[in-house]
Amino acid sequence: MSAIQFQIIKDGKENTDFLGRAGLLNTFHGQIKTPAFVTVGTKATVKSLTTDQLKKLGAQVVLANTYHLHLQPGSKRVEKAGGLNKFMNWDGPSMTDSGGFQVFSLGMAFGKNITKITAGKNIKKDGVVENYEEEILLDEFTDTTRKTRGFIPQNFKPAKIAEEGVYFRSHIDGSAHYFTPEKSIQIQNEIGADIIFAFDECTSPNESVHYQREALDRTHRWAKQSLNYHKSQKISEKQGIFGVVQGGRYEDLRKKSAKEISSMNFDGFGIGGSFQKEDMANAVRWVNQILPKEKPRHLLGIGEPEDLFMAVENGCDLFDCVAPTRIARTGQVYTFAGKINLKNSNFQDDFFPIDKNCACDTCKNYTRAYLAHLFRSDEMLGATLASIHNLFFIINLVNKMREELIGGNFLKFKKSFLSEYKN
Prior knowledge:
Elements: E1 5-11, E2 21-27, E3 30-34, E4 36-40, H1 51-57, E5 62-64, H2 66-71, H3 75-80, H4 84-88, E6 94-96, H5 100-105, E7 117-118, H6 143-149, E8 160-161, E9 166-169, E10 176-179, H7 181-191, E11 195-197, H8 209-231, E12 240-245, H9 251-262, E13 268-271, E14 275-276, H10 280-288, E15 297-299, H11 305-313, E16 318-321, H12 323-328, E17 332-335, E18 338-341, H13 361-365, H14 368-376, H15 380-407, H16 410-420
Helix pairs in contact: 7-8, 8-9, 9-10, 11-15, 14-15, 15-16
């Protein structure tokens, strides 16, 4: 019996190409109403927020990062504390990624500013992106590291990928580490989240088709090894595992990967990779037309409003992203008319809430002028209040998508929202 159970309660077919659905995903620590936004708590914390605040703003599930928890404080210490949920005082569903994205960001992408989502027009021949968005590589370097070392540490050696695994050095102290599929799963078993991911290789959209094929075959081998190791552990009775589909921007490779990963006995599926913006919808659709309908699908690392509509429409049930809290720490907040930057001078005398249509605690109790003051004076509270708002906005936007899916009005809602939202 699977450690998780997934039930589709509404298959929202509004036309022949529509793949969206609403469901219920049951885990050891509770139920997730899907589609759902997965809040990222990289180091067993959502930056600047307590778990009580997360619950109040409506977060259903939190995702932590295997790579970072392995380095600090160590997965065995988390296990000793009673697992991720007890360690961070979170009683709802939890997830961990595999460390696969760090293979990408610490490996071939290191120092090139290649991102999770790129715009094709910004990609140079040498693979460097001038104007990038969303997933900044090595995002979890500490603020001190960024300030003292200029974002990329001096003499830092990129990760090396081999057939058996990945060799890398810690960005904290330079110590050597080696991840194999079995090692990634062992760490995730020790961390103890409700859902974990198979170890995979995330590739750049700039890589040659030859390398994409090579990396895809490696990801499929690693998927089998990850699954076999996980199923041999007793914790698999209460901890689900998702296989990850890769394949870059190539339709044949994406479909091949979806078929291959589908053939394995995973509890659900992740859709991974670094995307060019214009390719993402096609890649997601190709994959979800093949993946088993009865199992949940998670689009890894995606979280901008327009991308969430795309993901839901094309059959994704879960998606995670650091964007809501990351941009909040820089003073950027979501409104129903688009993002605004509270550091801009025009908000210093704006005594209205961030968004008059928002019901979050920040909008109920504070003004744009107050938050502008907090950010201009480098007060910690600014990041907290902006993070509360951004997470509330995104989580409830996805909740509304679910409501409209069930009611059969998703596409109408999408058109209405996007007609007003300016990214």
